[in-house]
UniProtKB/TrEMBL annotation, chain B:
Keywords: Aminoacyl-tRNA synthetase, ATP-binding, Cytoplasm, Ligase, Magnesium, Metal-binding, Nucleotide-binding, Protein biosynthesis, RNA-binding, tRNA-binding. Gene3D superfamilies: 3.30.56.10, Bira Bifunctional Protein, Domain 2, Ferrodoxin-fold anticodon-binding domain, Phenylalanyl-trna Synthetase, Chain B, domain 3. One of its GO terms (biological process) is phenylalanyl-tRNA aminoacylation. SUPFAM superfamilies: Anticodon-binding domain of PheRS (SSF54991), Class II aaRS and biotin synthetases (SSF55681), PheT/TilS domain (SSF56037), Putative DNA-binding domain (SSF46955). HAMAP family: Phe_tRNA_synth_beta1. It comes from the Bacteria. It catalyses: tRNA(Phe) + L-phenylalanine + ATP = L-phenylalanyl-tRNA(Phe) + AMP + diphosphate + H(+). It is found in: Cytoplasm. Mg(2+) binds at D342, D348, E351, E352. It is an enzyme of class 6 (ligase). One of its GO terms (molecular function) is tRNA binding. The lineage of its organism: Bacteria, Pseudomonadati, Planctomycetota, Candidatus Brocadiia, Candidatus Brocadiales. This is Phenylalanine--tRNA ligase beta subunit.
Length: 296, 667
């Protein structure tokens, strides 16, 4: 239409009319097309043709790793008991993994803690108890922490062993803390995590960094304590080790063992997760088969 | 450590069945991992922690039993008559390294006859998994298992120059151990040498050359104490470990050493016809002073968090062979027996008292902690939903419970009663408690549209208020609005249910509420016959340009059905077979009966059935539609054969034809 002024005057009217009618026609056609495209497909679908029973299109959903879920649950229970979360290095000085925890060199109890070494006095921590020492060196009592993380032991990998696994360490130090308090806290945790009806049993045991020491069993959740293959027909399964902090550990961090007492505990995250879900092979956690990960 | 039930009974009287004994030992810290019947005896596998080497002998376990049941330990007779030949005339012994070998004893027995050991002894050794060899070797093993003290017998006639020297190895020296291993020795290792060369690696293993053989006539019986770390280092660097090194590493009992030597000598005399030379060689360094510890009663009570009576405390310590030196209201002084090297501090005594008193008798206190709170199920349900939906890109919204009285807000899909009015509303426009969350979500969508946000995915968890006679029913609802079509949002809802552990199938029944939903594109959702919610594409009357879908669910009902106990299902190892079918069915037949019909054929290895397309078009006769579906077959225990799958598939096709008149569409 911009061309109209350039045309001879006598032709302008006809040309204008023609263009105009063309424009109307195109507009109409476009409108029709637009309405067809936008409205028609929906409006023309008759009500009875749509099948609401057809399966939905599944969305892509992801999940947290089951071990993360377990650690999160443990953190949550202990958060409600006033425990902070603490972390420490995984490549650690031998001192923090052993000496400070009352495990001297050439001590037979070192046999219980086979360890990967990087150098003479540098190793991959074989337990999260290392964090106890690092925290107590920095902080005066009261201390109330849990320390989740990866630990390493040169075990041959099989259904029960992995050279890398996870632990959660706990430590509470204050004036007047007793073995009865340890039992109280562990019982709270076990009931919150495994269920209100779960029974707990403590057996005397030995750890160099606690005295008295205990292994903690819970009634087997698979058979309700009646006896099955998971609990070796004893009705009990071991879930953690615990005890009162050994005075030698306090000495290493310059705490007054007469004034302060405390307890520590440690648990294997894989073991607890396996018990909770009836998982029979620790390797599944690290194979990361989505058919496995999607189950939790 | 393995022990025999009957052998144990010889040293301590008790009336406990094998299982009762196992439970009692476990409760004081000696975990019995296994009880195995062997012949007419029982073999106990006892886990002895590394701090308790005293329990690496039957007598040590007997002491624990005595402490549990309150008896006393009966020690075997170690008296014997010796000959006039003095030991000093047959052998000389010198210890060059008293720090590494604080105590060395030797006895000599002449004129022995090497033969099989008596049957009673062989039987006990077999019970604990040891292979009988001959009377001399068996006796040294037997006494080690009895007392926890390792012993070694040398063939005296093969000991060069009738001389024993406990010294460091000379670098470059070699030894062939009894197990046949040849090892080069280094200066940091301790050996037992004769006049010429090493005859044993101290505390680890004897040498082949001086080992007891059938021709052995005279023996030297060694019973010693070696420094634990030294034994451990040597054992590890040579790669040789033995029952002896296991015990020396953990520490042996200085006081019990001579008794073990006498016991072995006596047994050798009894079983081999030998004659014990007069006297014994004892080389000890330093004075072993008994440890004395004070236990403060107050400390005991404070640390354990419970009061254990003084009488009971004293009794426990006595039963554990601690000698009470002093004892008053405030403290107990004790002397530690030699076999308890692990007890040297007050805290160690506290553990001993707690252990025998019983950890189970100590109360579980909560004074230092607030009670651990556990989340209620409804809370877990809401947390799970929030995490799931936000993960899928939904925003959580909060809208007012008090709404206006427009026709949209008056929609009530849950009951036929009208909403509850506020008697004194702040504004006339907002005067009613809502009966559905959807109108508010629709308004939120409109608001965002006006502010330039075209695409939206939102949800709200809140209550709707359904009138009752006095107080209303406050129903917890979850509502979603997403710019997506029906099947996409249905898929999200189904995934949400799975995430809540709900495996129950929902029924989707066509539903119409033209103010909210597009006709024909909405459904009522039922579970177990009760309505749990509604889902549908937004009505064109709402004026949205793009397709939007709405869901409202009764969260109380859904939450009740949630199940968070998960059980791991084994991963299937055998391959799955997937088959696609296209069915020609009448237009009115929906997916639900097709699926049900397929599931009802109960083909046990049919893992999943999915519909992936519905097609109507030229090639399809009028009044019919083509439903494309996928069957997935997988067995737990084998790879499926093509024929098996063909047969199963045919069964499904036949059933579909018979029940629904569905025909297989020819390609």
């Amino acid at each position: 239409m911009k061309l109209i002024p350039t045309l001879p005057v006598d032709k302008r009217v006809d040309f204008g009319k023609g263009v105009n009618s063309l424009k109307v026609e195109i507009d109409a056609a476009l409108q029709e097309l637009i309405s067809k495209l936008s409205v028609q497909p929906v409006s023309k679908v008759k009500a009875e043709l749509f099948d609401v029973t057809l399966p939905g299109k599944p969305p892509f959903v992801g999940k947290k790793h089951p071990l993360t879920q377990t650690i999160d649950d443990i953190k949550e229970v202990f958060a409600s008991l006033g425990f902070d979360v603490a972390y420490g290095p995984e490549v650690e000085l031998e001192y923090y993994n052993f000496e400070a925890l009352n495990i001297p060199a050439d001590h037979p109890s070192r046999t219980d803690f086979d360890t990967f070494y990087i150098k003479d006095d540098v190793l991959l921590r074989s337990q999260t108890s290392t964090v106890q020492i690092r925290i107590m060196e920095k902080q005066k009592p009261p201390v109330r922490i849990i320390a989740p993380g990866r630990v390493y032991r040169p075990d041959t990998v099989d259904a029960r062993h992995s050279f890398m696994f996870h632990q959660v360490e706990g430590l509470l130090v204050d004036e007047g803390v007793s073995f009865a308090d340890l039992k109280g806290v562990l019982y709270q945790f076990i009931k919150a995590y495994f269920g209100q009806n779960v029974q707990m049993r403590l057996r005397p045991s030995f750890f160099p960094f606690t005295e008295p020491s205990a292994e903690v069993d819970i009634s087997c959740s698979i058979c309700d304590g009646k006896g099955c293959s998971v609990c070796s027909y004893s009705g009990w399964v071991e879930i953690l080790g615990a005890g009162m902090v050994d005075p030698n550990v306090f000495k290493a961090v310059h705490y007054d063992a007469e004034k302060y007492t405390g307890f520590a505990f440690g648990m294997g995250v894989e073991r607890i997760t396996m018990l909770k879900y009836g998982i029979n092979d620790i390797r599944l956690f690290y194979e990361n088969d989505l058919r496995f990960l999607s189950q939790f | 450590m393995k022990i025999s039930y009957h052998w144990l009974k010889e040293y301590v009287p008790f009336h406990l069945s094998p299982q009762e004994l196992a439970d009692r030992l476990t409760s004081v810290g000696l975990v019995v991992a296994d009880i195995k019947p062997v012949e007419d005896d029982f073999c106990f596998d006892v886990e002895v922690t590394s701090n308790r080497p005293d329990c690496l002998g039957v007598i040590g376990i007997a002491r624990e039993v005595a402490a549990i049941v309150g008896g006393s330990v009966l020690f075997p007779d170690t008296n014997f008559i010796s000959t006039n030949t003095e030991i000093s005339k047959t052998i000389t012994v010198a210890v060059e390294e008293p720090l590494l070998c604080p105590h060395y004893t030797a006895r000599v027995i002449h004129h022995i006859t090497v033969a099989p050991s008596p049957e009673w002894m062989q039987k006990r050794l077999r019970c604990i998994g040891l292979r009988p060899v001959n009377n001399i070797v068996d006796i040294t093993n037997y006494v080690m298992m009895e007392t926890g003290q390792p012993l070694h017998a040398f063939d005296l006639d093969k000991v060069a120059e009738q001389k024993i020297l406990v010294r460091r190895a000379i670098s470059g020296e070699e030894i062939v151990a009894i197990n046949g291993a040849r090892r080069a020795l280094f200066h940091d290792m301790l050996v037992i040498a004769d006049g010429k060369k090493p005859v044993a690696i101290a505390g680890v293993m004897g040498g082949k050359e001086t080992e007891i053989s059938e021709s052995t006539r005279n023996i030297l019986l060694e019973c010693a104490q070696f420094e634990p770390r030294q034994v451990r280092r040597t054992s590890r660097s040579l790669g040789i470990a033995s029952d002896s090194s296991y015990r020396f590493e953990r520490g042996t009992d200085h006081e019990g050493l001579d008794r073990a030597s006498r016991r072995a000598a006596r047994l050798i005399k009894d079983c081999s016809g030998g004659e014990i030379a007069g006297g014994a060689i004892h080389i000890t360094s330093g004075i072993h002073e008994a440890k004395k510890i004070t236990l403060r009663m107050e400390r005991l009570h404070k640390l354990l968090g419970t009061e254990i009576k003084r009488d009971r405390t004293r009794d426990i310590l006595k039963r554990l062979s601690f000698k009470i030196l002093n004892d008053n209201e405030n403290f107990i002084d004790v002397e530690v027996p030699g076999f308890r090297g692990d007890v040297y501090r007050e805290i160690d005594l506290i553990e001993e008292v707690a252990r025998i008193y019983g950890y189970d008798k100590i109360p579980a206190k909560t004074s230092v902690c607030v009670r651990g709170n556990t989340k209620g199920k409804a809370e877990i349900v809401e947390d799970t939903i929030r995490q799931f939906l936000t993960g899928l890109g939904f925003y959580e919204v909060k809208t007012f419970s008090i709404v206006d009285t427009t026709p949209l807000q008056s929609i009530n899909i849950w009951s036929d009663r009208v909403g509850i009015d506020i008697a004194n509303p702040l504004r006339q426009e907002e005067s009613r408690l809502r009966t559905s969350l959807l109108p508010s979500l629709i308004n939120t969508k409109g608001y965002n549209l006006n502010h330039g946000t075209e695409q939206i995915k939102i949800f709200e968890i809140a209550k709707v208020y359904l009138a009752e006679i006095k107080l209303p029913q406050e129903k917890n609802c979850l509502s979603l609005l997403a710019d997506a079509d029906f099947l996409t949002v249905k898929g999200i809802f189904e995934a949400l249910l799975r995430n809540l552990g709900i495996v129950l199938q929902c029924e989707w029944i066509p539903f119409s509420e033209s103010r909210l939903f597009r006709d024909g594109r909405a459904a009522k959702i039922q579970m177990d016959g009760s309505t749990v919610g509604y889902c549908g594409e937004a009505s064109p009357a709402l004026g949205f340009k793009a397709v939007s879908c709405l869901v409202e669910v009764d969260l109380d009902l859904v939450g009740e059905k949630a199940n968070f106990t998960k059980k791991y299902q084994d991963l299937l190892q055998y391959p799955a077979v997937s088959r696609d079918l296209a069915l020609l069915v009448n237009e009115e037949i929906t997916w639900s009966p097709i699926e049900k019909c397929i599931m009802d054929t109960r083909v046990d290895f049919l893992k999943e059935v999915k519909s992936f397309d519905v097609y109507r078009g030229k090639q399809i006769p009028a009044g019919k539609k083509s439903v494309a579906l996928n069957l997935c077959f997988q067995a737990k225990d084998r790879t499926l054969t093509g024929e098996e799958v063909d047969t199963a598939q045919q069964k499904i096709v036949d059933t579909l034809f018979r029940m629904l008149g569905a025909e297989l569409r020819k390609a």
